[in-house]
Design a protein that fits this description.
Blueprint: E1 20-23, H1 31-38, E2 50-51, E3 54-55, H2 61-68, E4 71-74, H3 86-96, H4 102-115, H5 131-143, E5 149-153, H6 161-178, E6 181-185, E7 198-199
Parallel strand pairs: 1-6, 1-7, 4-5, 5-6
Antiparallel strand pairs: 2-3
Length: 200
């Protein structure tokens, strides 16, 4: 609840390992709030959240940081840092979380950007990229850590229908290839139904 207003009430959902599940619904009903609960950014007033059999609602920050390494998160606006190049944006989790040496960072970032068709834009800044390119960059940054679970918070919002369909095709391709568990919040109906195994 927020200031007495119930947002998620009696909500139960299970997502099987390797499954891509879409969550659809009206604006303001708590879809993004649910994703924040999954990664421990918010705690429920009551109830439980299990990630790979581990109940996370009472974990301390150190325990949560270990759980969060399982996740990749694709934000609805890409959430790139304007002051950093595309390379540095995608490299950020490799440097800050895994503390990889630069030669390994370079290899993984270039590989990931090539997969999403952005190898030629590697040294550009976010303000030099189109909306679709920014979403693909956000996808690359989420996948560069080889996550077990990927959360997609309305990754096609504000994009035209052709680019939206292309982003969903990218998600479908990487899900089939990498077999991560995915939760996709979307308003792209019926296109999303073509790529997911389950709809909530």
């Amino acid at each position: 609840t927020f200031n007495g207003q119930k947002v998620l009430n009696g909500f139960t959902l299970s997502v099987r390992k390797g499954q891509l599940c879409a969550i659809i619904g009206q604006s303001g009903i708590g879809k993004s709030v649910f994703l924040k609960h999954l990664v421990g950014l918010m705690k429920p007033d009551s109830g439980q959240i299990f990630i790979d059999g581990q109940e996370i609602t009472h974990m301390n920050s150190k325990e949560l940081s270990i759980i969060r390494r399982k996740f990749g998160y694709v934000f609805q606006n890409g959430a790139l840092l304007d002051s950093k190049t595309l390379f540095d944006n995608v490299a950020l989790p490799l440097r800050e979380v895994l503390h990889l040496k630069e030669s390994d960072v370079k290899e993984r970032v270039e590989n990931e950007l090539e997969k999403v068709g952005l190898k030629d834009a590697i040294w550009k800044y976010p303000n030099e990229l189109s909306g679709g390119m920014i979403r693909r960059a956000g996808l690359a940054r989420a996948l560069v850590m080889n996550p077990e679970i990927v959360l997609f918070d309305e990754p096609t919002t504000g994009l035209d229908p052709i680019i939206s369909r292309a982003i969903l095709k990218h998600i479908k391709y990487f899900h089939r290839k990498l077999r991560f568990t995915g939760v996709l919040i979307t308003h792209q109906i019926p296109q999303a139904f073509e790529i997911v195994q389950r709809v909530a």
